[in-house]
Design goal:
There is one protein chain. With 329 residues, the protein is α/β, with parallel strands linked by helices. Helices cover 40% and strands 15% of the residues. β1 (5-9), α1 and β2 (29-34) form a beta-alpha-beta unit. α1 crosses α7, α4 (93-114) packs parallel to α5 and α6 (189-201) runs parallel beside α8. The longest helix is centred in the N-terminal third of the chain and has 22 residues, at 93-114. The protein is globular. Bound molecules: NADPH dihydro-nicotinamide-adenine-dinucleotide phosphate and guanosine-5'-diphosphate-rhamnose.
């Protein structure tokens, strides 16, 4: 049998890099879309770049998406690209809607025009549950998004469901709860905390300014979550799945575990700063991933403490190398 081809939008992001590694290990031909920038943002895929094909495309540009799909002829398309940082969605709500909502329609239109046999994965989010209507949250829980990002993801989810029902596309929406890794962007809370704990331990930073420490999230490991994305596209029928650890922890616990890993008491370093509070907060998220566990046979392998410690250790190693090399990472 010939190799399967997967096309990943957002390959330069956290999830794109882990998914590319997974698919390469399964002997896929892996194509990623990248957008033009004055400096390359390929840090997360530099270790596998020679095994990937990269094509230029932007979620804002319909023709570039059609062209990318036509030229590369994928069996599977994973739409991971988005404006993914919740606070930015209040500063750039229209752009967030263009990327994160309408971008999904553009890529599905490209699939519909080029080849309706392509299997499609949409990166939906637990942020769609927002002010939660029930706890824990499952595929049946109504949405109540609390940010322009969450609203845009609800659109992305429903357009995926609608194209599946309108055009009989094999289109799946993965409703993924927060997932993190040493490759997480530095502005997200987990990485902000693990990076700061490492820097404070090594004398590179004095304090950590934080927003709401009472928010609760269901945090898992990105490497586990990309397996669920792939499994969704290997089933007989397309469907939507919640992917989560089914455990919730406060931001305060995250800070405590991260600082404890480097032998520090977080209370001596963490300062609360109104700048990091959001206009509307999502207070509590905890998933019910029973459907994914029973139908896909998926289970996460890394737990909360293991995840935070993995990230702290990685940041300590990175900054230790920086200091050893006289300020060059
Ligand atoms: P990242 O922010 O790390 O990566 C986002 C990717 O999207 C980058 O590759 C970025 O490219 C690309 N991108 C942004 N805008 C455009 C555009 N206009 N055209 C083409 N590419 C674009 O996100 P994650 O890897 O963490 O998340 C992947 C997806 O999953 C996102 O859709 C996110 O919203 C969603 N999600 C994430 C969760 C999480 O906890 N991580 C949970 C639930 C959903 P560039 O490098 O050029 O900026
Ligand atoms: P989230 O992730 O908004 O859940 O979206 P983030 O890590 O940004 O925030 C999680 C919670 O931590 C609280 N918080 C802070 N957050 C940040 N970034 N910085 C701070 O200083 C800080 N202090 C407290 C927040 O208020 C929030 O409650 C992520 C993204 O990856 C989305 O793309 C994805 O869809 C969802 O997860 C599931």
């Amino acid at each position: 049998m010939s190799k399967k081809t997967a096309l990943i939008t957002g390959i330069t992001g956290q999830d794109g890099s882990y998914l590319a590694e997974l698919l390469l290990s399964k002997d896929y031909r892996v194509v990623g879309t990248v957008r033009r920038s004055s400096t390359e943002t390929f840090e997360r895929i530099s270790h596998i770049e020679d095994k990937l094909e990269l094509v230029q495309a932007d979620l804002l540009d319909q023709y570039s998406l059609i062209d990318a799909i036509k030229k590369t002829n994928p069996d599977e398309v994973y739409n991971l690209a988005a404006q993914s940082f919740v606070p930015t969605s209040w500063n750039q709500p229209v752009l967030t809607g263009e990327f994160t909502a309408l971008g999904v329609t553009r890529i599905m239109e490209a699939i519909r025009l080029v080849n309706t046999n392509i299997r499609f994965y949409q990166a939906s989010s637990s942020e769609m549950f927002g002010m939660v209507r029930e706890t824990p949250q499952s595929e049946m829980t109504p949405f109540y998004p609390r940010s322009p990002y969450g609203v845009a993801k609800v659109y992305g989810h429903y357009i995926t469901v609608n194209y599946r029902e309108s055009y009989d596309l094999f289109a799946c929406s993965g409703i993924l709860f927060n997932h993190e890794s040493p490759r997480r962007g530095l502005e997200f809370v987990t990485r902000k905390v693990t990076d700061a704990a490492a820097r404070i331990k090594l004398g590179l930073q004095k304090e950590l300014r934080m927003g709401n420490l009472d928010a609760r999230r269901d945090w898992g490991f990105a490497g586990d979550y990309v397996v669920a994305m792939w499994l969704m596209l290997q089933q007989d029928k397309p469907d939507d799945y919640v992917i989560s650890t089914d455990e919730t922890h406060k931001v305060e616990e995250l800070v405590e575990v991260a600082f404890a890993r480097v032998g520090l008491d977080w209370k001596e370093y963490v300062v609360q700063d109104p700048k990091f509070y959001r206009p509307a907060e999502v207070d509590l998220l905890v998933g019910d991933s029973t459907k994914a566990r029973t139908r896909l046979g998926w289970t996460p392998e890394v737990d909360f403490k293991g995840l935070v410690e993995m990230m702290v250790d990685s940041d300590v190693a990175r900054w230790t190398k920086y200091l050893k090399n006289g300020g060059d990472v």
